Amino acid sequence: MRVISLFVMVLTLLIVGCSSSGKFTKDNAEDQYAAAKNLYERGKYFQASEAFRLIVFNYSGVSFIDSVQYYLGMCYFKDKDYILAVAEFRRLTRNFPQSPLADDAQLMIGKCYFLSAPKNAGLDQSDTYTAISELENFIEDFPQSDLIGEAEELLAKCKARIAEKTFKNGEQYYKMGMYKAARIYLEDVVTNFDSPEWRGCALYLLAQIDRKEKKYEDSEAKLINMLQTFPGHKWEHKAEKLLRKVREHMGISQQASGL
């Protein structure tokens, strides 16, 4: 009897141990799904991912398999494993395009690429370009989604990062005195990006190049454009100071100019 009691106690401890580590022995997909979600909501993303993956493997035909697939992607996302997260979200959008979670998954793909790109705009931004493509696909494919505002906001952040990178390239050429090359990048920022910060900065440096090349009227026009279009810009005082210098070269008094 003592041996049997010891065996029962050990078996009980093993079952409890498995339960506490995130493993479970539920008999149906619904119970396993509930247990996996419980792990996810408790922040146990690695254990939850194992649990969701088991459901995908064992119960691929259940009606809520798209939700399982989505949460599997979210587990990897929460653990900042963006490569695996993209793979799972992509699997959802391809296999279940009519799922109510398809738009969420597509947005998450764009978010994964944005977050995996270096925050330093001077570094390789290939993932940011991919994020832009994925987010533009979202806006095109899900124009009625409740998430459209979030997608547009994230897309603007992506484009601002590329605008910063383009500006930094132009700024580097400007500092090297290579004004022709600098113009190409700076004019690209002004023409092709909506970011007020970097468009304003680009206009300022373009005005500086014009001044150095004694194109004072062009310089004046760019500075006026900057000050009027982007009031309160971080380089506003620098632009006002440069404008006064440019007008001195032109022989125009500040008082008479109106700006």
Query: How would you spell out the order of helices and strands?
Result: HHHHHHHHHHHHH
Instruction: Kindly report the average pLDDT value.
Output: 90
| Shape assignment | elongated
Number of E-state strands? 0
The percent range for helix content is over 70%
Binned strand content: under 5%
Q: Any idea of the CATH class of the domain at 14-92? A: Mainly Alpha
- By CATH, the architecture of the domain at 14-92 is named Alpha Horseshoe
Briefly note the CATH topology name of the domain at 14-92: Serine Threonine Protein Phosphatase 5, Tetratricopeptide repeat
Radius of gyration: 28 Å
Main sheet characteristics: none
List the SSEs and their pairings.
Layout: H1 2-20, H2 29-41, H3 45-58, H4 65-78, H5 82-95, H6 102-116, H7 126-141, H8 148-175, H9 179-192, H10 196-212, H11 216-229, H12 236-250, H13 254-257
Helix pairs in contact: 2-3, 3-4, 4-5, 5-6, 6-7, 7-8, 8-9, 8-10, 9-10, 10-11, 11-12
What's the gist of this structure?
The chain has 259 residues and is mostly helical. The protein is built from 13 helices and no strands.
Which tags fit this structure?
259 residues; mainly alpha; single chain; 13 helices; elongated; disordered N terminus; Serine Threonine Protein Phosphatase 5, Tetratricopeptide repeat; 0% strand
